[in-house]
Write a structure and sequence with these properties.
CATH superfamily: Electron Transport, Fmn-binding Protein, Chain A
Number of helices: 3
Structural class: alpha+beta
Helix content: 10-25%
Radius of gyration: 14 Å
CATH architecture: Roll
Number of domains: 1
Strand content: over 45%
Length: about 130
Amino acid sequence: MQEIKEVFEMLKKAGTYYLATCDDGQPRVRPFGTVNLYNGKLYIQTGKSKAVSHQLHANPKLELCAMVGGDWLRVEASAVEDDDRAARVSMLEAYPSLQAMYSPDDGNTEVWYLRNVTATLYSFTDPPKVYKF
């Protein structure tokens, strides 16, 4: 559990991370900012109407990359949609600014937890640190 908390804290500290998905063989990268710990899992959030949602449904493999101070974090994982209303509520409570665009019952808000995670913290001065959960 400590590893997932460390990765969560790094992503929170970064503020913005870049989410990469695959779209019919073409990589797609976009800035993201939502990350939440819920029931011991690391979550991200998007809207079902967005291209990223369609890409994750077609191919759940993703990568995240974020700068944390002078280091960078790369996260490889598979995304699993969680249709639990409480998971959506938890995410929106963690990000009140999203409540102007999303609600737990709007039929658009979706949250995904990450599984089979390998997160690597890279530095120019230290050897990489690998987290697996």
